[in-house]
Design a protein that fits this description.
By secondary structure, this protein is of the alpha/beta class. The protein has helices at about 15-30, 40-45, 80-90, 105-115, 140-160, 175-185, 200-210, 230-240, 260-280, 300-305, 310-320; strands at about 5-10, 35, 50, 95-100, 120-125, 165-170, 190, 215-220, 245-250, 285-290, 295-300. Helices cover about 40% and strands about 20% of the residues. Strand 7, helix 7 and strand 8 (about 215-220) form a beta-alpha-beta unit. The chain binds 6-O-phosphono-beta-D-fructofuranose.
């Protein structure tokens, strides 16, 4: 393999830059020429492919977001869009493409490789941790820690006023972020899409929690929960009670900020593993880390299989919230 390119796609996640740096430097170390694509698949369709080198990724390891830029490209979902992208890749003589992103990005990468001559390797990059084939995705750990810092602040004010807080976190259709924020943040409950929400039961638990003498009560709500967003859940829980409640939606602050140690290390490991995979002839695989080991998973499996959230952690949180 003579040339590879790297792009970031979908929602940015802390650690993407660490992975870009690792891809570029690992390629360089193997004598493969590294290229970068600006603004994800949207930039690829426009042919925005630039040579990179070891020095062009200096000083980016600790930065949040993605220095390459990212996009959600509707055009890339069409065969015409992908044909355009393939023309640019052929012209630049790119033989391997590393795609850092989530399941939508991997679907696009998979189709691209099937329709053209380029081989692709995926690196799981999303704060949602919703990809099968890795214990954790790039950005999840940092996003949980960012949310926790904010939840800790909310606890200060909640305890001062003896209030109930509903805190909505991201995660799309998955409850990983909510579960980890709930357990690590000492929440009374984490509402996740994977478990049906019982509003009367939740009301009972909240009231009981104050009866036990607690000065605050935090309910973490996953944005994709079946009961709806935090505002609607809060209204229904408080109905017929005199609970003094407030709602906070954390939103995009969870996505920004410098990657923590875990996401930097994960970026380094997976960036290097993606280059190794391509150099060894692999195609349409995602590299991930499972119990400390680098593993390769067929791209298609990353969205056709779902790694369920650990239900035992939900039960643990329930046991500890007393
Ligand atoms: O997939 C990452 C994520 O942050 C989700 O948690 C969230 O639902 C979505 O992206 C938000 O997307 P956007 O930045 O396009 O509003």
């Amino acid at each position: 393999m003579r040339r590879i390119a790297v792009l970031t796609s979908g929602g940015d996640a802390p650690g993407m830059n660490a992975a870009v740096r690792a891809v570029v430097r690992a390629a360089d170390a193997r004598g493969i020429e590294p290229y970068g694509v600006r603004d994800g698949f949207a930039g690829l369709i426009q042919g925005r492919i630039e040579p990179m080198g070891a020095r062009s990724v200096s000083g980016i390891l600790h930065l949040g977001g993605t220095v390459l830029g990212t996009a959600r490209s509707p055009q890339f979902r069409t065969t015409e869009g992908r044909r355009e992208a393939l023309t640019h890749l052929d012209r630049a003589e790119i033989e391997g493409l590393v795609v850092i992103g989530g399941d939508g990005s991997f679907r696009g990468a998979d189709a691209l490789s099937r329709e053209g001559h380029v081989r692709v390797a995926g690196i799981p990059g999303t704060i949602d941790n919703d990809l099968s084939g890795t214990d954790f995705t790039l950005g999840f750990d940092t996003a949980v820690n960012t949310a926790l810092e904010l939840i800790d602040r909310i606890r200060d004010t909640a305890a001062s006023h003896q209030r109930l807080f509903f805190v909505e976190v991201m995660g799309r259709k998955s409850g990983w972020l909510a579960l980890y924020c709930g357990l690590a943040g000492g929440a009374t409950e984490a509402l996740v899409p994977e478990r049906p929400t019982d509003i009367p039961l939740l009301r009972q638990r909240v009231l009981h929690s104050f009866e036990l003498g607690k000065r605050f009560c935090i309910v973490v709500v996953a944005e994709g929960d079946d009961a709806g967003g935090a505002y609607s859940v809060a209204e229904r829980v408080a109905e017929g009670t005199d609970l003094d409640y407030r709602v906070t939606t954390l939103g995009h602050v969870q996505r920004g900020g410098p990657p923590n140690m875990r996401d930097r290390i994960l970026g380094a490991l997976l960036g290097d593993a993606a280059v190794t995979a391509l150099a060894e002839g692999a195609d349409r695989v995602m590299v991930g880390l499972r119990r400390g080991e680098i593993v390769r998973t067929p791209l298609e499996r990353t969205w056709t299989h779902i790694d369920r959230i650990p239900e035992d952690l939900l039960e643990l949180m329930d046991r500890l919230a007393r």
